[in-house]
Amino acid sequence: MEAFVQSIMQKLGPFGIALLMFLENIFPPIPSELIMPLAGYLSTQGDMNILIVIGAGTIGSLIGTLPWYYLGRRLGHDGVRRLAERHGRWLTMHPSDVDAATDRFKRHGTSSVLVGRLIPTVRTLISVPAGVARMPLGTFLIFSTIGTLAWTAALALAGYLLGQAYSVVSDYVDPISTAVLVILVAAYIYRVWTFEEVRD
Fold first, then answer.
1. How far apart are CA 9 and CA 7, in angstroms?
2. Residue 99: exposed, middle, or buried by beta-carbon count in 10 A (0-12, 13-18, 19+)?
3. What is the rounded distance in angstroms from the CA atom of residue 161 to the CA atom of residue 90?
4. What DSSP character marks residue 134?
5. Which residues does 102 contact at the CB level (< 8 Å), separation at least 6?
6. pLDDT tens-place string over residues 150-195
7. Are 11 and 48 in contact (CB under 8 A)?
8. In this predicted model, what pLDDT tens digit does every residue of 93-139 receive, in sequence order?
9. How many CB atoms lie within 10 A of CB 86?
10. Are 105 and 133 in contact (CB under 8 A)?
């Protein structure tokens, strides 16, 4: 997997980083925990400047949050809830999950967007209740940018600071990231298989 990610970055440069981070937010086949450290490491090889790497990752990730934000904004709480009722098995999400996410957002408001960007998995999902609550787009983008910038910068700088040692670490990262992907796919299939319809 690492070889695939690296080839995308080397062929497309900063656009490749942005594209991978965009896809990671839409449907996370490749985690940002692999993308950004590798991009940071490549910047030590003279391929890209570390600031450009961080900027590309942040922009790609931000663009990836917008479809989820607009989905929540367009459908509203009841619409997202109906979506969960009809397609909950494939989304592995009950209507009650929608209620809980909306309630958490109402309690914590804008801070939940900023903090949510620093938590794996939640990073993408927090956009939906923000849209449902019709959080102003400008406010959403400001808090999302702060959290996303902190996340991408931390990961990219980790790869950058490792420098030459990254090639040693990557020998372990690639099989681990592949195993994590297999586990995530298996977990999703299991959740779909065992999903129980809830009528409420």
1. 5
2. middle
3. 40
4. T
5. 77, 129, 132, 133
6. 999 998 998 888 876 666 555 655 565 566 556 656 665 666 566 5
7. no
8. 667 777 777 777 777 777 888 887 887 666 777 888 888 888 899 99
9. 10
10. yes
